[in-house]
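Appendix C. Worked example: Proteasome subunit beta
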Amino acid sequence: MSIFEYNGAAIVAMAGKECVAIGSDLRFGVQFQTLATDYKKVYKIHDKLFIGLAGLGTDAQTMYQKLKFRHNLYKLREERNIKPSTFGELVSSMLYEKRFGPYFVSPVIAGLEDKTHTPYLCGMDTIGAIETAHDFMVAGTAPDSLYGMCESMYRPDMEPEELFETVTQCLMSGADRDALSGWGAIVYVITKDSVVARTLKGRMD
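Step 2, the predicted output written as structure tokens:
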């Protein structure tokens, strides 16, 4: 078994019209043994920026703590929140500098740019090779089923409620086809005015 599949994960981020949504399943397990059903894999950096970290649970938590520390330093120095595109470059450089002993994580970054409220989505591999997307980005142990659902259900310029419904259906359907993720989900919808978090119940098996 790959080290990336040790704890299991399913993460989906999707862009809408001046809004973006990101969600993850809630299962935490050791291979096929479920240990917890309330483990969130999406972390808040600030109100317009969230990061999902699939992969090894311990590395994901270490990575989040380091990123939060870096963002706090940036905020002290610049007196403003970091832009999602800048944050993507920061995550990439942090992963690349550890390339000989990498963090076993697959980050997915979702946010809204400062003044334009343009959705920003990107993902990267273990050593920080960035791939941006204008529609959706997935990570975790169920990428094939997540990609299939997202490609069939995504439409450009969705409003926040429709975007939430689409991400929910994609995430739940993808996780249901994967033994290493599931047990419900949490989805964040980020607009220029608010962040709405909803917890979903899924199959409990």
